[in-house]
Amino acid sequence: MASSERSLIPIDLIEETFCRIPIEYLTKFKLACKQWYALLKDKRFIYKYLDLVQERFIRIDDGMVQIINPENGARSSSPIPDVFHNVAEISAMVHCDGLILCRCKDTRSRTYKLSVWNPFLNRIKWIEPMDFYSSNDFYGIGYNNVVSRDEYKVLRIFDGQPEDGSEIAVSYQPKIQLYDFKYNSWRLVNDTTLDWSIDPPCKGVSVKGNMYWVAHWNNRPEIFIQSFDFSTETFKLVSNLPFRCGVLDTAALSSFRGDKLSLLYQHEEATKIEVWITNKLSDEVVSWTKYLNVTSPELPTLHTDEDLAHPSYFIGKNDNIMVWCEEEIEDETNDDVCVSVYKISKDGIVKKQVDVGLCDLRNDGRAFVCGYVYLPSLVPVPE
Fold first, then answer.
1. What proportion of the chain, given as a percentage, has pLDDT over 90?
2. Which residue ranges does the record assign to the F-box domain (predicted)?
3. What structural domains does the chain harbor?
């Protein structure tokens, strides 16, 4: 069928069949005929398929891209793309629709760079700064959900306190910048005063085109969920956290069922894990409901030390908690940590799905977050 113009199979049936095929095999059908190629490039189908894709975990470690399907334990490992070879570390990633916004540190110039990357399609676009990037930046990626899902934008929050102490950095005031792929340019968002800060372990969650972070007031102890709406270009306090979070406790944010947030909480004693979920984020008032309350002496401690990377998680099939975390090794003379993926059932049954291996704590390029939740997709990198 390689030279055929059209398939004899009805296009509706082909589309429904394609929706059931794992994405790793789907692109092989592009060469079958022009009709199938056009379907796999069609924006409507791309986003329909994306909404059906199962979450994965992605991690960059020691020059390799690791992608894991925690439901079945399948994993792939491939070299980091050539264009990243001069990058010492990818220190932060933010995901939206299979596109990953990466903050990178250049090995030669010691400056920071920003790129958007689709790991599945192996496509990358570098984004030039309005002025410069900093390790203190926070980023978001989303779209105007009133206009079009494929018109992506990047948000940059700069707190005005770079680590290098340079003259340009010292005189730099906190600013909010927006990058529009459609126009390939940055612009300032005016009239925005921030009296809050994002919690550093939280790199943000993109849901329905908007960004969400765990944040805290600059002069008060309360912790809450902060959002940025790309359609109105405004920040909004979504809700307070439904629990008190101690210094040694673990709180991790994720999306839930496409249009909600979930929040995992583990007390430092580590015998219990709670998962809270919101109602729909489009509702006028957003509140939390305790969804899972798992108690077991077998639960892993998800974050035991400030030197360890923070965990990532999502709620999988049958309400299983899928979590990727680092664990200390009992040998005190060993500087390595064990990186593992666990499946935790709502009944407290714990199963180690994948033993990813060891990671050296002495490596300065280690990720601050253990891994990231990721959806492999056919969404093209914006030009």
1. 55
2. 3-50
3. 1-41 (no CATH), 42-374 (2.120.10.80)
